[in-house]
Amino acid sequence: MAAAQPSIVYRPAQASDEAAIKALIRAVNINPMGLKWPRFLVAVAENGELIGCGQIKSHRDGSRELASIAVQRAWRRQGIAAEIIHRLLADEPPPVWLTCMDRLVPFYQQFGFVEVKGGDGRSLPLYFRFIRTIFKPIQKLSRIPGYLAIMVWPNEIGH
Ligand SMILES: CC(C)(COP(=O)(O)OP(=O)(O)OC[C@H]1O[C@@H](n2cnc3c(N)ncnc32)[C@H](O)[C@@H]1OP(=O)(O)O)[C@@H](O)C(=O)NCCC(=O)NCCS
Predict the structure, then answer these.
(1) How far out from the chain centre does Cα 86 lie?
(2) Which helix (H) or strand (E) holds 64?
(3) Residues 99 and 47 in one domain
(4) Ligand 1 near 70 CB (within 6 A)
(5) Whether residue 83 is found in the same domain as residue 145
(6) Is 158's C-beta closer than 6 angstroms to any atom of ligand 1?
(7) Are residues 33 and 99 in the same domain?
(8) Number of separate domains in the chain
């Protein structure tokens, strides 16, 4: 895995990062809900530009989700997302859940996440059961290719 550049600073977000976090999430076109800045870790370039972010969301059912992982296009494939994910997981007891489009399953497998397939639905926290249920009709209507994968770290299901 590419080593993250030493000139990049990784730090908890500040209120002043809020607009840049929202702009990055909008630019990469991922879930724009639940972007409260205090939960975010950000990657900042030498010139002060916010180039990557990620967060751990807590849900009402007690589950926690790795979410909003995004890196500006010009900064990709340099290990920035990997650094953000490692740092976020280092502070979290397992299990941590996530949702992603199926094409990103291999990406998250690198960090020890395993996909929870359909038959394991009963073992999903309520929030992720809900997401799976509402995503299906949305996907049909919008014709998004692929499917929404649910993954957990580490292998909570034991398969
Ligand atoms: C997915 C994303 C966050 C990866 O960021 P990144 O900083 O380029 O990732 P890294 O450089 O840390 O990659 C770590 C490893 O994953 C691999 N990888 C990166 N993107 C990948 C992808 N889309 N699919 C599979 N593997 C990928 C890299 O090759 C690297 O492995 P290597 O060093 O052995 O080659 C970035 O492409 C992005 O912002 N995409 C748009 C937003 C998005 O889809 N976020 C995920 C929401 S679930």
Answers:
(1) 12
(2) strand 64-71
(3) no
(4) yes
(5) no
(6) no
(7) no
(8) 2
Helix (H) / strand (E) containing 140: helix 126-142
Tell which atom from ligand 1 comes closest to the C-alpha of 82: 12
> pTM of the full predicted structure?
0.92
Q: Is the CB of 9 under 6 A from ligand 1?
A: no
Pocket test for ligand 1, best of 57, 77, 100, 135 (most atoms within 8 A of CB): 77
How confident is the model over 119-153, as pLDDT tens digits? 555 689 999 999 988 888 887 787 778 889 999 99
Q: Please choose from 24, 107, 115 the residue to mutate so as to test ligand 1's pocket, defined by most ligand atoms within 8 A of CB.
A: 107
**Cα of 55 from ligand 1 centre, angstroms:** 16
Instruction: State the pLDDT at residue 61.
Output: 96
Domain range enclosing 45: 1-55+68-92
Is residue 63 in some structural domain? no
**pLDDT tens per residue across span 18-66:** 999 999 999 999 999 999 999 999 999 999 999 999 999 999 999 999 9
